[in-house]
Every structure is written in structure tokens, then in C-alpha cells.
Amino acid sequence: MWKRLANLVIKYRLGLLILLAAITGLMGYFTTKVKLSYEFARAIPIDNPKYKEYVSFQQKFGDDGNMLVVGIQTDKLFQLDVFNAYKTLHNELKSIKNVEGVLDVPSAINLQKDSATEKLNPVKIFADTIASQAELDSDKAVLYNLPFYKSLLYNPEANSYLMAVRINKDSLNSPKRTKIVANIVDAVNRFQQKANIETHLSGLPLIRTIVADRIQKEMKIFLIGFILFSALILLLFFRSFSTMLLSLFVVLFGVIWSVGLLYIFGYKITLLTALTPSLIVVIGIPNCIYFINKYHTSYLQSGDKIQSLVDMVSKMGVVTLFCNITAAIGFAVFAFTKSALLQEFGVIAGISIMLVFVISFILLPAVLSYLPPPKAAQTKYLNNKLITALLIKIEGWVFGHKTIVYAVTVILLVFSTMGIVRLKSEGYIVDDLPKSDKIYTDLKFFEKNFKGVMPLEIVVDSKKRNGLAGMRALKAFEKIDLLSQYIAAQPEMNRPLDVGEGLKFAKQAYYEGDSTHYILPNSFDMALMADYLTAKKDSNKAANNFTKMLSAFIDTSKEYTRVSVNMADVGTERLPQILKGIQDTANKIFDTTQYNVQLTGTSITFLEGSSFIIKGLKQSIFWAFVLIAICMLYLFRSVRILICSLIPNLVPLIITAGIMGWAGIALKPSTVLVFSVALGIAIDITIRFLVNYKQELPAHNNDVYATVGTSIKNTGLSIVYTALVLIAGFSIFCFSSFGGTQTLGWLTSVTLLVATLTNLILLPVLLLLVSKKKG
After folding, report:
1. Share of the chain above pLDDT 90, in %
2. CA 331 to chain centre
3. CA distance 113 to 115
4. For the packed helices 204-238 and 438-450, what is the interaxial angle rounded to 10 degrees?
5. To the nearest whole number, what is the mean pLDDT of the chain?
């Protein structure tokens, strides 16, 4: 069958090449239509309880991850010139399109009691125009007499000040967000130069935007670097510019098709699907090396170009097909998870890998048939003295030192198992950034001065409509205040903001600004203040402003209220402990028959998303192993060979996991992906060796020893060349500014090196062991 296919490709080569070029052109057009995804937490399935709770919260109170914060630390803020510059920054930020509001010291309000109208009127503490330093000092005293703003907008002990910029949530989930954030950063930089005060920026909008944009730019740069570096090594190996270009065309066609598939399926580019082009390079380059290596080997034997091309396709077609099938399975299993993020990645990666086989199967023999036969210089690499000497050495280890091979393998596995015990599963929102990066250091500034900026939301459900209205609500607010006191006492969490804090603010205003009255009103206070807290119609204003302010924390049915907390980026290991402490405390404070307390917000969805991705990847690797094992069993029809094939692929993964444990590298989405990539590459090497072994066995009258030796010589050269190209390519990722990308680079390189050794040394030794037992 494969010979017939080879002849068909060569016979209809012109038409196939035109068709291939036309499809690539169409896919290239589709790539211009693909858009970036700006959505957050898509890793969580839509039927996940935590996701449902978060959506429910958003429907009642809006988005919680749309606040960007600007921080400064100075004892000069209340100098007139500096303060005016700070006010100018406020005005500039507020004028930026899609910025919905700015909360800071210059815009802070006070509540003034108006006995005549029985209202608490909001008035700006700082006038729009401040004439003198004395006036500014007087206003500063008013601000510092309001405990409501302490730790939220300023930290008097550290002379630190915070400016919160609220951005339209729809704009944050669109390409506009890059420009919005850039405009904010520009305005802040202008203030920094004018006032000569260092500024700090943080918050999810900034972190998500800058990190995502930076990763996408890096992935493009590294993809180009990967391709160029691979091209250089291919040129050095094959000594042929045309062969090198042909290999690159296979890869480039595959990359274009993979991105075009995103448009066809209606997907957007995410941080996972953005990895698919790199995977195409990883799969495409070995396809080219093995095909061309077989073509050159056959040509040296026969001297007939067309016959050599037929041999290339007939011998390597089935091998490459199964290699690509197993690699595709390794990623396609993600499509069976419930996570949209993983599903899209699995579909695109799985289909793209199979399309690379189609491209290489058509493009390589068709183009090579038009090119002149390989010259002696182009096949010189087949007799590389260094690699030949290495393969002879390997053959000596396989036949003469089997016990040492077993012993070294066992020692490495024991050492790795000890490392796996140390392996942790932990992630941080800014985890992959170097500790010297400004995004990281700025986040630590806010954690030190304001206990963090990561949003956590607590929703208290009174279980009945109007359950938080009138005097009946006071008991609920008293309980919420007890929970808030517990939260504020935690070292990783700032003082919560809730309706109770608003009532304390109102009580202080009612008692003429006396800060000793900044406590939750009792029933007597509520009776006195009732008229001041009730919305009233008049000719000037539609409703009481204080009621408007509180409406952001109580839903329209007055059944639900929120408690908003800013916290540190504590990581996925510490966060569950903190959440459990809050939930346990809430269960003690609230009668669960009357109230339901839910913890939600971006911090929760991040935790759930990271955990889900890690679990999904672990499960996918397991199922990939099962499906690949079934393919191997079908291909070789032998349980013994199946076992022999799986062990050399398990060993590299175990060693990699052990290295991660000893190196202190935690399991997280960016590092778990290493195992999927490494599994696809390692299985590829195994199949190529075993297929060659199976093909050579009859020629050696079923002499296993002779067949193993021949297989090492025949496949060893291609395996070593492929390993060198891929190791060199992946090492480029080590120069990334992101820890996850760096880890992906060097860990995959290490795994590939180990997989090459296990498949060239351990696999042959196991085949000899099996044959001995069989005999």
C-alpha cells in the first residue's frame, strides 16, 4: 500500500503541490483573521460550582478584577506642588477612555450632617483649587480623622498612598486593554518625572495585560529563533541549502495550517493554543530528518533517485504516521476534558500534528523528485565519524554491560523517586516572573504597604428577599463585622470593605465627625440615624448619595451583600488554608439555617483554574499513555515489545519529575505541559527504533542480537541528529524572561536527552532480555 501511495505522490506531484500551495494560501488568509483571547479563567468548566458562584456574583455586583492600582511612598505628598501634581495625575487618569472612575486621596469625600434636610451629604475633602499650604494641611487633618480610608487609600506608618483606577470590564476582555493600560502607564510615568517620586503599578488588569502581551511577543520571537536555529543545524548536517529550505517549508506550512485552524473552528489565540506552532516545529523537524535520512541511505545503496523516494515513503511512511498519531493522541486527549482552554488546545494540537504528516508525506517526495540527486557532500553526514564512534560505543554497552545499564537505571529511578516525594503543586499569579521584574517588585510593594491587591469576594446570602433591609439587617451586619475583624487580623489580607464600614462612616458623620464613633451603629443609633440613611426625593437630587454608595454592596433584592477584600498573592498552596479559615469562622458566626456564606472572586477562580489545568494535564497524560499503548500493541502485536516500548518512555518522565522535585520546581500549568511534550517526542523515538527492528528481524533470520545491532546503526544516526536539533531548539527558550518558558526549555531538553539515551541503550537491552526469556 505504501509503495502505491509513494508512486501516486510522485505521479501526481505537480497537482498535489499546487493543491498544497493553494490550501496554504487560504490558511494564510485565515491566520490574518484570528484574534487574541482576553478572557480570564476559561480553564474552569462552565458547570463547575466555583465558576457558577463567580458568574452569579458578577451578575449581582459586577466584575471584581477590573481595578488597577498606582502606589507611591513619600513624606512629601502634602506639599502643595506635589499634591497638585498628584491631582493632575488623577484628572489625566479619569480622562482616559474606558476608565470608569479613580479613587484616591484627592477625590476622597467626607459625609457632612445636614440636620435641616436630615441628610448625610458627601463633600470633597480637598477642594478643586487649594490656595495655600495651610489649607492643604487643614484638609489633610480631616482625611486623617477618617478611619474609613486608613489602609485603603493610605498607610500613615509607611507614608504610602494608593490610587485605584476602575476600568470598564468589557474593554478589559478586548484588544483595547493594551492601549488602556499603556495610556495609564504613560500618565503615571509623567507624574513620576514631574514629582520625582517613584511609582508602583499593579492589579489584575495590569498583570494580565502586560504578562499576556509579553508572553505572546516572546513566543513569536522564540518560534522564529527555534526555526532559524533548526535551519542552521539542518544546513550543517545535510550540507544542502535546498534540503534545509524544504524542511523549513514543511514546518512553515504546518505552522500556517495550525493557526488557520483556529479561525476555522472559531477559536481565539490563548496562552495554550499559542504553543501549537512550536509543537509543529517539534514534530515537523523529526519527520523531515527521518524521511530525508532514509532517502539518502537508499540512494547510496541503489543510485536510483525515484526508487529511493519510493523506498523513503514505503519504509518511513508507516513509521511517521504512527509517530504522528501517538504524538497527536498525547495532545488530543485534552479535548476530552471539561475545560474550554484545554479542549481548544487539544483539538488544534491533535489535528495540526496529523496535518504535518500529510504535508511532509506530500511535500518531501514531490519536491525531492524535482531536485537533482543528492551529491556526495550532502550524504557525507551518514558517515559522521563522531556519531558513528558513539553508536559503536552504545552498541558495546548494550551487548557487554547490560548489568551496568540496569543498575544505572535503578539508581536514577530511586534518586528520581526521592525527588518526586519533594515535588509540590503550587502556583502564583506572578509566579513565572523573575524576582527583579518591576511587575513582581511592584506587587510586593502593595503587599508590604497594603497587604496586597488580589481580589477576594465574600457573598452573604440572607436566604430571603429584603433580608438585609431595615432594622432586621443590623444583626447581619454585626455578624459580618465579626468576620471582617477576623479577616483584617490575617497577615495576608487587608481590612475588608463592606456595608458595615459604610455604616461606621455614617455614624461618625452623624456624631459630627468624632472618630471615636467609627464603630458599627447599635439599634439605638440606627433609630436616630434612620432618616439620614433613607433615600429621599427632592427638587435637587433624585436620591440620597449615601444610599447610592451602599448599593454597590447590596443587591437590588436586598437578599445578598458582598464583603470585598484585597489580599496578597499567597499561592495555590497557602490560599486553600486561608479560605478554609474564613469559611470555618463564618460557619461559627452565622447560623447556617438563616445565612449562606460563599467565597468567590478572581483569587478563587485562579486557584480553581490552576488546579483544574494541572489535574486535566495529569489525567490526559495517563489516558495518552493508555491510548498510545493500544496503538503500540496494534502496531507490534506483542505484549513483550509493548512493555519494552513503554519502560524507556516512563523512565525519562520519572527522571524529569525527580529533577523538578530536587530543583524545587512546582507543578503548575506551565511545567506540567513539559510531560506532554516530552512524551510525544520520546514515543516518536521508540516507534522509529522498534519499526526498524521489526523490519530488519526477518532479514537476520530472527536473530535478535544481530537485529538490535543493525537497528542501533540504522536509526541511531537519525535519532541523534533529531535530538541535537530539538535540544538546540528548546534551549532557546531558556533565554526567556518568564520562569515557565525557561523551565519548558531546559526540562524538555533534559527529558529529550534522557529519552534518546533510554531508547538507544535501555530499549535494546530490554529487547535482548525479552528474547532471552522467550528462548
Report:
1. 36
2. 16
3. 6
4. 150
5. 85
Those residues with Cβ within 8 angstroms of residue 634's Cβ, 6 or more apart along the chain or in another chain = none
Q: What is the dihedral of CA 549, 552, 556, 559, to 10 degrees?
A: -110
Helix (H, G, I), strand (E, B) or coil at 162: strand
Output b/e per residue, 63-101; b: 16+ Cβ within 10 A: bbbbbbbbbbbbeebbeeebbbbbbbbbebbeebebbee
Q: Are 329 and 283 in contact (CB under 8 A)?
A: no
219 has a pLDDT exceeding 80: no
Residue type, 712: I
pLDDT at 688: 80
Instruction: Report pLDDT for 543.
Output: 39
- Per cent of the chain over pLDDT 70 is 96
Instruction: Using DSSP, state whether 241 is helix, strand or coil.
Output: helix
Give the pLDDT band of residue 542 (cuts 50, 70, 90). very low
Neighbours of 680 (CB within 10 A): 24
Give tens-digit pLDDT for 82-95: 999 999 999 999 99
- Please state, in angstroms and rounded to a whole number, the distance separating the CA atoms of residues 300 and 379: 8
- Residue predicted with more confidence, 163 or 553: 163
For residues 571 and 426, is the Cβ–Cβ distance under 8 A?
Answer: yes
Question: What are 34's strand-pairing partners?
Answer: none
Higher pLDDT: 453 or 279? It is 453
Backbone angles phi, psi at 511, to 5 degrees: -95, 40
What is the C-alpha separation between 52 and 523, in angstroms, rounded?
A: 36
Say how far apart CA 220 and CA 391 lie, in whole Å: 36
Model confidence at 450: pLDDT above 50: yes
Tell me which of 386 and 36 has the higher pLDDT: 386
Give the chain's largest Cα–Cα span. Answer: 110
- Are the C-beta atoms of 271 and 36 separated by less than 8 Å? no
Kindly state the helix (H) or strand (E) to which residue 562 belongs, with its residue range. strand 560-567
Cell of 191: 507624574
Asked whether 724 and 296 are in contact (CB, 8 A), the reply is no
Query: CA torsion, points 739, 742, 747, 749, in degrees to nearest 10?
Result: 180
DSSP secondary structure of 246-289: HHHHHHHHHHHHHHHHHHHHT--B-TTGGGHHHHHHHHHHHHHH
Q: Are strands 109-114 and 119-124 parallel, antiparallel or unpaired?
A: antiparallel
* DSSP assignments along 118-147, one per residue: TEEEEEESS-SS---HHHHHHHHHHHHT-G
DSSP per residue over 665-727, as a string?
PPP-HHHHHHHHHHHHHHHHHHHHHHHHHHHHTGGGTT-HHHHHHHHHHHHHHHHHHHHHHHH
Residue type, 305: K
In eight-state DSSP terms, residue 771 is H
With beta carbons less than 8 A apart as the criterion, state whether 714 and 696 touch.
yes
Look at the block and give the residue holding cell 477612555.
97
Tell the residue number behind the cell numbers 503541490, with chain if given.
Answer: 17
Q: Which residue has the higher pLDDT, 628 or 481?
A: 481
| 633-677 tens-digit pLDDT | 877 778 888 888 888 888 988 998 899 999 888 887 767 778 877
Secondary structure of residue 441 in the 3-state scheme: helix
DSSP 737: S
Question: What would the mean pLDDT of 231-241 be, rounded to a whole number?
Answer: 81
Q: Among all chains, which residue has been given the C-alpha cell 481565539?
A: 268
Which grid coordinates are listed for 595?
445565612
Calculate mean pLDDT across residues 514-533: 84
C-alpha–C-alpha distance, residues 267 and 519, integer Å: 52
36 secondary structure, DSSP code = B
| 3-state class (DSSP) for residue 599 | strand
